[in-house]
Each structure stands twice: as C-alpha cells, then as structure tokens.
Amino acid sequence: MYRFLTSNICASIWSRRINFPVVVPSSSFHEIRKNGYEDKNRKKVSPRQAIRDGLKELKKEIKNWTEEVKEGCTLDPIMGMPLPGEVDMQWCFNESIDFDHWVVTSDSDHNEGYSTSTLSVSPTGKGLFSGNLSTQLVRDGKVKKAGYCNFKSIRPQKSFKRDSFHNWSGYTHLVMRVRGDGRSYMITLGTAGYFDVNWNDQFHFALYTRGGPHWQISKIPFSKFYMTSRGRIQDMQEPVPLNRITSFGITASDKNNGPFRLEIDYVGLELDPSHKETSAYEQYKVPYFYAGY
Fold first, then answer.
1. Whole-prediction pTM value?
2. Which of 69, 122, 125, 283 has the most CB atoms around it within 10 Å of its CB?
3. CA of 31: how far to CAs of 40, 54, 101, 281, in Å?
4. How far is Cα 272 from Cα 170, in angstroms, rounded to an integer?
C-alpha cells in the first residue's frame, strides 16, 4: 500500500506571528514493507516512464472496477450460499495454474539457511511443492534455527490496489486433496489486520501425509486452527476470523533433513451443518491486572 500526499496541499502555520503556507513534500511518505526486508530488486525508472506505466495501470484498474460493479449488480445471494456436503474449490492446481499468484520462500532466500524449494507442475499435471530441507546453520552468529520452506497465496486485491479478503464465513471445514511423502506439514491461514500489531496474526494446523502412491483427502475443521503471532502460540486463543482471510500457505519445517515432496490437487471449502464448534481451545478471561492483557 502506498501513501500519497499531493504537493499542492498547503497548510497554514503560525510562526513568529506570520501566516505562511508550507508545502509538505511527497517524499515524506514511503511504501510500507511488512516483511521487514529491503526490496533490492526494485528498478528505478524515469518520471516520464513512471507516468506512462501509471496510465496503463489506470486503464487496467478502471476495467477491473467495472467488472466489480457488474458482478455486484448481477450476483444472486441465494445462489452464492454454500450447499452442505459440497466442496467449493478455492484453488485448483493444474497445468493452467498462474504461479504469479503464489510466493515461494525458504531460509536460503534471506541468507538464514541452506533449504531450497520450488512450486511447479508435477508429471501428472498437479501442483508440486518440493525441495530440500536443511537444518544446517549459517555461521554468522545470529541465526539460531534453520530449516523451513513454504509457499503462500498473495493477498487478494480489489480495483485500484485496494486490499481485500477471502470471505469463508459460510464454511466450516478446509478440504485438501494431496499426495505426500510421509512428512508432516503446517497449514497457515493469514489474517493480517489493518494495524501493525495484527500484521503477523496467523492460524495454523498440521497436515499429516501418509506417503505412498495413493491420494488422500484431508478435511480439517476451522475450529481446530490455533492462533500465533510472529511464530509464537498465543495464550488467548480465538476463533478464526473466516471473513478476513488474507492468505493460505503450507510450510515444510519438521526438522528432518532431506528432500520433500507434496503434490496438491485442490484446496476447497465445505459446509457441515452438524459441526457446531467454533474453537477447540479454551476461551477464558484473565484478570485485568495481568500485564499484557
């Protein structure tokens, strides 16, 4: 998200009993980088080229906004309701998958380890998350733990680069069809909020794979996901805010060195009316005089 301030907005400031306009330069604002890493690959362009690229982007965003208005006017709320027992596909991994909608990272990308990973298409035409997991530490005196690989979806956006959410509030279960190698993986649901204190809020649950040549269908209730922030499990748990899902991801970090392989067919959602549980973990209130709560 960018914060802009037009240079022609003036503020009248009283200084030494004299009113004079002050122009706040646009360089006072910068792009918010939530991941904490500097974007070294960003190319510098001339102002003329930036204007050309901006006009092209404006044309594209106006088209997206038009499609949003049409969809909002023609959408039938009755037909959009989930049917019990029916799996609604959220992501299908096949040969036509757009890898630009996914981000693959590992500890070696940030000079924090030696693990590598890729997201590609398998010989059977399904999504393939594979690589090599290594817990070997980098000898810099700073990194204490290593050995992780993960991929996650990018945050959905509306027209004009407005942040949006996946609304899964009508569903109770996450359904996946996968074929693994016997490792345990971690499913991550991102629920980043507006304020920076909520940028790292995530919900996790384990994905156990059997290995072998057979596919498996994993059906996980959203009530089983537990909340973490910056990798730490929170004492005060809460249900997953299904109307504010920002990303979905899978992490390989079971501390077992060697290659890993996870084949994915689809990720879907299902409604089970008989499932009444909202959170499988204790919901309690601590006294107000406890620090931090």
1. 0.77
2. 122
3. 14, 16, 21, 38
4. 10
Q: How far apart are CA 183 and CA 146, in angstroms?
A: 17
Q: Could you state, in order of their start, the residue ranges of all structural domains in the chain?
A: 88-270
User: Residue 185 to residues 97, 181, 182, 243: CA-CA distances in angstroms?
Assistant: 22, 10, 9, 25
- Amino acid 199: pLDDT: 86
C-alpha of 27 from chain center: 29
**Cβ contacts of 116-124, under 8 Å, gap ≥ 24:** 116/149, 117/149, 117/150, 117/151, 117/252, 119/151, 121/93, 121/94, 121/95, 121/97, 122/263, 124/263
> Rounded distance, CA 246 to CA 235, Å?
23
Q: Is 28 left (phi over 0), alpha (psi -120 to 50) or beta?
A: alpha
Residue whose pair of structure tokens reads 């309701």 in the numeric block: 81
> Which of the two residues, 204 and 14, has the higher pLDDT score?
204
CA pair distance 108, 131, nearest whole angstrom: 12
How high is the pLDDT of residue 38? Answer: 58
As beta bridge partners, residue 129 has 119, 262
Classify the phi-psi angles of 230: left when phi > 0, otherwise alpha if psi is within -120 to 50, otherwise beta: left
Q: Which CATH superfamily is domain 88-270 in?
A: Galactose-binding lectin (2.60.120.430)
29-84, pLDDT tens digit by residue?
A: 334 555 555 566 677 888 888 888 888 888 888 988 998 888 878 776 766 788 88
